[in-house]
Design goal:
Elements: H1 25-39, H2 64-67, H3 81-98, H4 105-112, H5 135-154
Helix pairs in contact: 1-3, 1-5, 4-5
Protein backbone atom coordinates (compact mmCIF):
# COMPACT_ATOMS: atom_id res chain seq x y z
CA UNK A 1 0.00 0.00 0.00
CA UNK A 2 1.06 3.56 -0.65
CA UNK A 3 2.24 5.62 2.25
CA UNK A 4 1.50 9.28 2.74
CA UNK A 5 4.25 11.62 3.88
CA UNK A 6 3.30 13.91 6.76
CA UNK A 7 2.41 17.45 5.86
CA UNK A 8 2.70 20.37 8.21
CA UNK A 9 0.93 23.66 8.69
CA UNK A 10 3.01 26.83 8.77
CA UNK A 11 1.84 29.59 11.14
CA UNK A 12 0.88 32.15 8.49
CA UNK A 13 -2.26 34.22 8.91
CA UNK A 14 -4.92 35.03 6.33
CA UNK A 15 -8.32 36.68 6.61
CA UNK A 16 -10.03 36.34 9.98
CA UNK A 17 -12.44 33.48 10.47
CA UNK A 18 -16.05 34.09 11.48
CA UNK A 19 -16.48 35.66 14.91
CA UNK A 20 -13.00 37.19 14.74
CA UNK A 21 -11.06 33.94 15.23
CA UNK A 22 -7.68 34.40 13.49
CA UNK A 23 -7.41 31.66 10.87
CA UNK A 24 -4.12 30.63 9.30
CA UNK A 25 -4.51 30.20 5.56
CA UNK A 26 -3.65 26.53 5.85
CA UNK A 27 -6.46 25.89 8.33
CA UNK A 28 -8.93 27.45 5.93
CA UNK A 29 -7.59 25.02 3.29
CA UNK A 30 -8.06 22.14 5.72
CA UNK A 31 -11.63 23.22 6.49
CA UNK A 32 -12.44 23.58 2.78
CA UNK A 33 -11.05 20.10 2.13
CA UNK A 34 -13.14 18.58 4.91
CA UNK A 35 -16.28 20.31 3.58
CA UNK A 36 -15.64 19.21 -0.01
CA UNK A 37 -14.90 15.58 0.89
CA UNK A 38 -17.63 15.22 3.51
CA UNK A 39 -20.57 17.13 2.04
CA UNK A 40 -19.61 18.75 -1.24
CA UNK A 41 -19.50 22.05 0.73
CA UNK A 42 -23.18 21.74 1.65
CA UNK A 43 -23.91 23.18 5.09
CA UNK A 44 -27.36 21.55 5.21
CA UNK A 45 -26.24 18.07 4.08
CA UNK A 46 -27.62 15.04 5.90
CA UNK A 47 -26.12 11.55 5.76
CA UNK A 48 -28.86 9.19 6.78
CA UNK A 49 -31.47 8.06 9.22
CA UNK A 50 -31.47 6.01 12.41
CA UNK A 51 -28.04 5.02 13.68
CA UNK A 52 -25.73 7.54 15.38
CA UNK A 53 -23.27 7.37 12.47
CA UNK A 54 -26.14 8.04 10.08
CA UNK A 55 -27.01 11.23 11.96
CA UNK A 56 -24.05 12.97 10.34
CA UNK A 57 -25.07 16.37 9.06
CA UNK A 58 -23.82 19.75 8.03
CA UNK A 59 -20.84 20.71 5.92
CA UNK A 60 -18.43 18.74 8.12
CA UNK A 61 -20.75 15.76 8.67
CA UNK A 62 -20.71 15.82 12.47
CA UNK A 63 -22.64 12.96 14.04
CA UNK A 64 -25.07 14.12 16.71
CA UNK A 65 -23.07 12.62 19.56
CA UNK A 66 -19.94 14.50 18.52
CA UNK A 67 -21.80 17.72 17.69
CA UNK A 68 -23.34 17.50 21.18
CA UNK A 69 -25.75 20.45 20.85
CA UNK A 70 -22.87 22.79 20.03
CA UNK A 71 -23.83 26.46 20.47
CA UNK A 72 -27.37 25.31 21.27
CA UNK A 73 -28.05 23.62 17.90
CA UNK A 74 -29.28 20.03 18.15
CA UNK A 75 -27.76 19.03 14.79
CA UNK A 76 -24.90 20.49 12.81
CA UNK A 77 -27.12 21.08 9.76
CA UNK A 78 -29.32 23.40 11.85
CA UNK A 79 -26.38 25.65 12.77
CA UNK A 80 -25.50 28.56 10.48
CA UNK A 81 -22.31 28.18 8.43
CA UNK A 82 -20.21 30.38 10.72
CA UNK A 83 -21.08 28.19 13.73
CA UNK A 84 -20.23 24.99 11.84
CA UNK A 85 -16.96 26.60 10.71
CA UNK A 86 -16.20 27.72 14.27
CA UNK A 87 -16.66 24.18 15.63
CA UNK A 88 -14.59 22.59 12.87
CA UNK A 89 -11.87 25.23 13.25
CA UNK A 90 -11.68 24.47 16.97
CA UNK A 91 -11.45 20.71 16.37
CA UNK A 92 -8.84 21.02 13.61
CA UNK A 93 -6.73 23.39 15.71
CA UNK A 94 -6.86 20.94 18.61
CA UNK A 95 -5.96 17.96 16.38
CA UNK A 96 -3.01 19.81 14.87
CA UNK A 97 -1.74 20.91 18.29
CA UNK A 98 -1.93 17.34 19.61
CA UNK A 99 -0.18 15.85 16.57
CA UNK A 100 2.69 18.22 15.84
CA UNK A 101 0.85 20.11 13.06
CA UNK A 102 0.74 16.93 10.94
CA UNK A 103 -2.04 17.54 8.42
CA UNK A 104 -2.04 13.85 7.45
CA UNK A 105 -3.75 12.96 10.74
CA UNK A 106 -6.75 15.22 10.06
CA UNK A 107 -8.54 12.87 7.62
CA UNK A 108 -7.97 9.88 9.91
CA UNK A 109 -9.31 11.69 12.95
CA UNK A 110 -12.24 13.07 10.97
CA UNK A 111 -13.14 9.69 9.47
CA UNK A 112 -12.44 7.45 12.46
CA UNK A 113 -12.24 9.67 15.53
CA UNK A 114 -8.82 8.16 16.22
CA UNK A 115 -5.70 7.12 14.33
CA UNK A 116 -6.09 3.45 13.35
CA UNK A 117 -3.11 1.14 13.70
CA UNK A 118 -1.99 -1.88 11.71
CA UNK A 119 -4.63 -3.80 9.78
CA UNK A 120 -7.33 -1.34 10.83
CA UNK A 121 -5.88 1.11 8.28
CA UNK A 122 -6.93 -1.31 5.53
CA UNK A 123 -10.33 -2.39 6.85
CA UNK A 124 -13.54 -0.56 5.93
CA UNK A 125 -15.05 0.64 9.22
CA UNK A 126 -18.78 0.11 9.71
CA UNK A 127 -19.66 -0.78 6.10
CA UNK A 128 -23.25 -1.42 7.28
CA UNK A 129 -23.45 2.34 7.95
CA UNK A 130 -22.46 3.22 4.41
CA UNK A 131 -18.68 3.49 4.64
CA UNK A 132 -16.95 2.20 1.52
CA UNK A 133 -13.34 3.31 2.07
CA UNK A 134 -10.63 2.06 4.36
CA UNK A 135 -8.99 4.71 6.54
CA UNK A 136 -5.94 4.58 4.26
CA UNK A 137 -8.09 5.13 1.15
CA UNK A 138 -9.98 7.97 2.81
CA UNK A 139 -6.73 9.59 3.95
CA UNK A 140 -5.22 9.33 0.46
CA UNK A 141 -8.37 10.75 -1.17
CA UNK A 142 -8.49 13.58 1.37
CA UNK A 143 -4.79 14.45 1.00
CA UNK A 144 -5.10 14.52 -2.81
CA UNK A 145 -8.00 16.97 -2.49
CA UNK A 146 -6.05 19.04 0.05
CA UNK A 147 -3.01 19.19 -2.25
CA UNK A 148 -5.23 20.29 -5.14
CA UNK A 149 -6.91 23.01 -3.04
CA UNK A 150 -3.65 24.35 -1.64
CA UNK A 151 -2.15 24.51 -5.15
CA UNK A 152 -5.23 26.33 -6.48
CA UNK A 153 -5.10 28.83 -3.63
CA UNK A 154 -1.40 29.49 -4.21
CA UNK A 155 -2.01 30.56 -7.83
Amino acid sequence: PATVAPATVAPTTAAPAPLGIPMPKEISDILMTIRLVESGNNYTAEAGTDTDAATASGAYQYINGTWNNYAGYSRAKHAPPHIQDQRAHSDVTMFLARHGNDVAVIPLLWYMGHIPQGAAMDTVPYPEQGNALTPRQYQEKWLRMYATKTQECAV
